[in-house]
Design brief:
The structure holds two protein chains of two kinds.
Chain A lengths: L1 E10 L3 E11 L4 E5 L6 H8 L7 E6 L2 E2 L7 H6 L1 E4 L11 H11 L5 H14 L15 H13 L5 E5 L7 H16 L4 E4 L3 H7 L2 E6 L2 E7 H6 L4 H11 L2
Parallel strand pairs in A: 3-8, 3-9, 6-7, 7-8
Antiparallel strand pairs in A: 1-2, 1-4, 4-5, 9-10
Helix pairs in contact in A: 3-4, 3-5, 4-5, 5-6
Chain B lengths: L6 H41 L4 H15 L3 H20 L9 H26 L4 H8 L4 H31 L11 H12 L2 H33 L1
Helix pairs in contact in B: 1-2, 1-4, 1-7, 2-4, 3-4, 4-6, 5-6, 6-8, 7-8
The chains are: A alpha/beta, B mainly alpha.
Chain lengths: 243, 230
C-alpha cells in the first residue's frame, strides 16, 4: 500500500533529516514508528503524502508515486487520511463543517450526503452532541477525535498519524487511542508515529525504530519488544518503559 | 470670531452636504475599501506565493505606492490616465475618464498597497499546520486559501482593516484637488459662496471627527469581542 524506498531529505545543504529510509506498509497493516525526538519520524510520515518534499528516493501510495511531478497530489492526498499532533481543526468552522468541507469541495458530495456521513462519524467517535460547537470549545482529546473523524469522512485507503497523543493531557490520551485501536481492528491501513508503546504492543503488526534520520530497526512487533537487535533501540526502550 | 457665528448657513447647506457630499464620500470609501481589499489580498498572495518573480513584482508595487504622497497620486492619475488610455487603445484623443472613476481607481490601487500588508500579516499569523491540514484533506492551493487560510486571516485582521478604512474615509477628502464634490468639497463650496469659511470648516471637521470617533469605538468593541472568541 505504502512503499518507501531509499528516501533522503536535507534541510538546506548541511542537515540531513532522513538518510536512505526504506520500508513499507501493507494493506490492513498497522506500523508504528518510534524513536527519540529529532529522529526524523514526523518528517518521514509527512513525506508520505508529500507535505514535506524530499530530494532522493521514491514513495508510492497504492502504486501512485507521490514524488512524480505529474501526480495529482490533491487527489492522492484526499485518499490518505492524516491526523496531526496539534489537531489542526479549522477554528473558524463548526465541528460539523470541519467534517463536511473537504467532502463537498474535494469529493464533490452533496451537502446532505456530507452531513449524513459527518454525523455518522461524529457518532462513532462519541461527539454527536458537539456538532454545532466550534473547535475551541472542545477539549484536546475531543478535538483529536474530531480530527480523526474528519480524516475518515474522506473514506481513506490508509491513515497517517503524526504523534496524535503527544499534545494531549494524560487523561485524554486513552479516549483517542481507543478510537485508533478500533480503527486498527477494523483493518484500516495505518502508519502511526507515536511513543505509546502500549498502543504499539496492542495493535501494531510492525514497529519501526528511527534515530538520527535513519531507520535503525524494522521488525515484527514481538521481535521488537522481545529482543531489539540494535543498541540504540534497546536504550530507547529501556528509557521509555522504565517508568 | 464666534460673535457672529451663523448656524443658519450650516442648516441651509445640510441637504447639499449630506445628500451630495457625504453620499459621494461614503460611496468612494466603501468601493475603495472593497476593491483595495480584493486587489490587496491578491498582492499579498503574490508576495507569499514562493514564485520569486511574482513576489518581487508585488513587493515593488507596494513599496512604490507607499513611497508617494496620496494627493500626488490622485493628481497624476487624473491627468495621466486619459493619455495612457489613449496610448493603450490607439485612440486619436485622450480618452475621457470621469473624476469619480479616476479617483476610485486611484484609491483602490493606493489602498491595495496598504491592505496587502495587513492581509500579508494576517496570512502569516495562521500557523503552518492549518494549510497543511487542508492540503492533507485534498484541498488544492486555491481551496486552501479560500476556505481555510483567508477567512481566518481576514477575521484576525478585521479590526486593523477597519481602522485602515477609517483612515481611508478621511483620505477621500483629498479628492478636492480634482474639484469633486465630496463632503469636504461640498462644505468648501458653500463656504466660498456664502463667505462663511469658519462655520463651514468647523462643521465639516466636527462631522469627520464624530464619524471617525464612533467608528473607532465600534472597532475597539469588535476587537474585544474577537479576543473573547479566541
Amino acid at each position: 500500500m505504502i512503499e518507501i524506498s531509499h528516501v533522503s531529505k536535507w534541510y538546506g545543504a548541511s542537515f540531513q533529516a532522513l538518510k536512505d529510509c526504506t520500508t513499507s506498509v501493507a494493506k490492513a497493516e498497522v506500523v508504528v514508528v518510534c524513536g527519540p525526538s529529532g529522529s526524523g519520524k514526523s518528517t518521514l510520515i509527512k513525506c508520505v503524502n508529500a507535505l514535506e518534499p524530499f530530494q532522493k528516493g521514491d514513495i508510492s501510495i497504492d502504486g501512485i508515486k507521490v514524488n512524480d511531478p505529474k501526480t495529482n497530489l490533491p487527489a492522492l492526498r484526499a485518499r490518505v487520511g492524516m491526523v496531526f499532533q496539534h489537531f489542526e481543526l479549522f477554528p473558524h468552522l463548526r465541528i460539523i463543517d470541519n467534517l463536511c468541507l473537504a467532502q463537498e469541495k474535494v469529493l464533490g458530495r452533496s451537502h446532505d450526503e456530507a452531513m449524513a456521513k459527518a454525523s455518522k462519524l461524529l457518532d462513532r467517535v462519541g461527539l454527536q452532541e458537539h456538532a454545532q460547537k466550534f473547535p475551541a470549545q472542545l477539549s484536546g482529546g475531543q478535538q483529536q477525535r474530531v480530527a480523526i473523524a474528519r480524516a475518515l469522512a474522506m473514506d481513506p485507503i490508509a491513515m497517517l498519524f503524526d504523534e496524535p497523543t503527544s499534545a494531549l493531557d494524560p487523561e485524554m490520551i486513552s479516549e483517542v487511542l481507543d478510537v485508533m485501536v478500533d480503527l486498527a481492528r477494523e483493518g484500516m491501513t495505518m502508519m502511526v508515529v507515536t511513543h505509546e508503546m502500549g498502543f504499539a504492543s496492542k495493535v501494531a503488526n510492525r514497529v519501526i525504530f528511527m534515530d538520527r534520520g535513519e531507520i535503525v530497526e524494522d521488525a515484527q512487533k514481538t521481535d521488537f519488544f522481545g529482543k531489539p537487535r540494535s543498541d540504540r533501540a534497546q536504550k530507547f526502550l529501556s528509557k521509555i518503559l522504565s517508568h | 470670531m464666534f460673535s457672529n457665528f451663523d448656524f443658519d448657513v450650516i442648516r441651509r447647506a445640510l441637504p447639499y452636504m449630506f445628500y451630495e457630499g457625504m453620499t459621494f464620500t461614503i460611496t468612494l470609501t466603501a468601493l475603495s475599501a472593497l476593491g483595495g481589499l480584493i486587489f490587496g489580498t491578491m498582492i499579498a498572495l503574490m508576495r507569499l506565493s514562493g514564485y520569486r518573480l511574482l513576489a518581487r513584482v508585488a513587493g515593488v508595487y507596494v513599496d512604490f505606492m507607499r513611497s508617494l504622497p496620496l494627493v500626488l497620486v490622485i493628481f497624476w492619475f487624473y491627468f495621466l490616465v486619459p493619455y495612457i488610455g489613449q496610448w493603450l487603445t490607439g485612440a486619436s484623443r485622450p480618452i475621457h475618464v470621469g473624476a469619480f472613476a479616476s479617483s476610485l481607481i486611484t484609491f483602490i490601487m493606493f489602498e491595495a498597497a496598504y491592505f496587502s500588508e495587513i492581509m500579508r500579516a494576517g496570512i502569516q499569523s495562521i500557523s503552518k499546520g492549518q494549510p497543511a491540514a487542508a492540503q492533507a484533506l485534498g484541498l488544492n492551493y486555491r481551496q486552501t486559501m479560500r476556505y481555510v487560510v483567508l477567512p481566518q486571516a481576514f477575521r484576525n485582521m478585521l479590526p486593523v482593516l477597519l481602522t485602515q478604512t477609517i483612515v481611508l474615509f478621511q483620505d477621500t477628502s483629498l479628492v478636492y484637488v480634482l474639484s469633486i464634490t465630496d463632503f469636504l468639497g461640498a462644505a468648501s463650496k458653500v463656504a466660498q459662496r456664502d463667505g462663511r469659511l469658519v462655520e463651514m470648516y468647523i462643521f465639516a471637521a466636527l462631522v469627520y471627527f464624530v464619524i471617525c470617533c464612533v467608528a473607532s469605538f465600534g472597532v475597539r468593541q469588535l476587537q474585544s469581542r474577537i479576543a473573547v472568541m479566541r
